[in-house]
Amino acid sequence: MFVLSNFLVAIARVLEVVLEAAKWLILIRALISWVNPDPFNPIVQFLERVTEPILAPIRRLLPQMPIDISPLIAFLILFFLKQFLVQTLFDLAFSIR
Question: Is the pLDDT of residue 73 over 90?
Fold first, then answer.
């Protein structure tokens, strides 16, 4: 059973890194949006391509507002996933040892 336990720990750690990276990319995109970035800049294009699949569905669910709060909602969702899903995988892995 230790193999399954180690596999679940590995999945939890990879998921934790992915969620943390998504959080930082969304934060950077939100901060860059305050300074009116050049849309042809490769870094700006990369940030949009990576974060838009996360932010677009949230924007569709929210009513039209003067400011975009989708990054804040995305942070809350990512925080929830990190606290619930990652911790659940860790607890499950340690319970089957």
Answer: yes
The Cα 51–Cα 79 span in angstroms is 16
Structural domain boundaries in the chain? 2-65+86-95
d(CA 77, CA 83): 10
The SS3 assignment for 67 reads coil
At CA 70, angle to CA 67 and CA 74, rounded to 5?
150
Determine the average pLDDT of the residues in 27-38. Answer: 93
Tokens standing for 57? 């569905």
Matching residue, tokens 């911790």: 87
Could you tell me the pLDDT band of residue 72, with boundaries at 50, 70 and 90? very high
78: number of Cβ within 10 Å: 17
Q: How confident is the model at residue 31 (pLDDT cuts 50, 70, 90)?
A: very high
Place of tokens 């849309």: 39
